[in-house]
Amino acid sequence: EDQVTQSPEALRLQEGESSSLNCSYTVSGLRGLFWYRQDPGKGPEFLFTLYSAGEEKEKERLKATLTKKESFLHITAPKPEDSATYLCAVQDAGGTSYGKLTFGQGTILTVHP
Amino acid sequence: GAVVSQHPSWVICKSGTSVKIECRSLDFQATTMFWYRQFPKQSLMLMATSNEGSKATYEQGVEKDKFLINHASLTLSTLTVTSAHPEDSSFYICSARVGSRNEQYFGPGTRLTVT
After folding, report:
1. Are B46 and A101 inside 8 Å of each other by CB?
2. DSSP result, A54-106
3. Among residues B14, B15, B20, B18, which one has the least CA distance to residue B94?
4. Neighbours of A6 (CB within 10 A)
5. Residues of chain A positioned with their CB less than 8 A from the CB of B95
6. Pairing outcome for strands A107-112 and B4-7
7. I need a labelling partner for B14 at 20 to 30 A (CA). Which of A1, B4, B29, B112 fits?
8. What does the radius of gyration of chain B's CA atoms come to, in whole angstroms?
9. Whole-angstrom distance, CA of residue A35 vs CA of residue A22
10. A45, B106: Cβ pair inside 8 Å?
11. What does the DSSP 8-state code read for residue B4?
């Protein structure tokens, strides 16, 4: 069974204080690892897809990296508008081709001005 | 691109009634859509996978006769909660898969409250 564990559960940062969120995963074979941002009362917003160990992707102040066992979401010089819940999900290569995602519990990020 | 809409955004219904939620891909065709449920302070739990023109695949523990899914076109999937009860109150979110990029885009969600 696929498992995704995110840490920490909650993270409070001062504006400009860089940090990283962790996503550890267990799958029989990784087809893809996904990062989403979710604001309260809204659906998740797609951020990145990573496919193989060593891959990195960037978007504004966010950078996602991938190893064979975990992924990190690095946040550089965060701003209050980066406050949200960040979700990690994996897609098992051994599953059907329909693209089922297994989500972690998320990390609630709060950035104080 | 890759915009997904849901309707309604929120709904309140009485116990025992049925509620239909629509999920549309606005600027792409989605052969596969997914329905998730999210309880407060919890992550998304997949309920079912909806494929255009075929029966939905339900996750273990999800009652197929209670949560009816129809994916009649490449841009529309519907979830009907039949004989709703207060324990069905939740945030229901759909997603649509962009096959060529293996990415899933989510709708804004529907807040269901059963009184």
Report:
1. yes
2. T-EEEETTEEEEE-SSEEEEEE-S--GGG-EEEEEEEEETTS-TT---EE---
3. B20
4. 23
5. 43
6. unpaired
7. B4
8. 13
9. 11
10. yes
11. E
**Interval A63-111: pLDDT, tens:** 999 999 999 999 999 999 999 999 999 998 876 656 789 999 999 999 9
Whose tokens are 């909806």? That residue is B50
Task: Give tens-digit pLDDT for B7-32.
Answer: 999 999 999 999 999 999 998 888 89
pLDDT for position A92: 86
Element (H, E) at B46: strand B45-51
- Choose among A31, A91, A103: nearest Cβ to B44: A103
Do residues B102 and B31 lie in contact, with contact meaning Cβ atoms separated by under 8 Å?
no
pLDDT at position A95, please?
Answer: 61
Give contacts of B48 with chain A, Cβ < 8 Å: none
Return the residue in B32, B59, B104 with the most chain A beta carbons within 10 A, the one to mutate for interface testing.
B104
Residue A35: which of A68, A53, A62 has the closest Cα?
Answer: A62
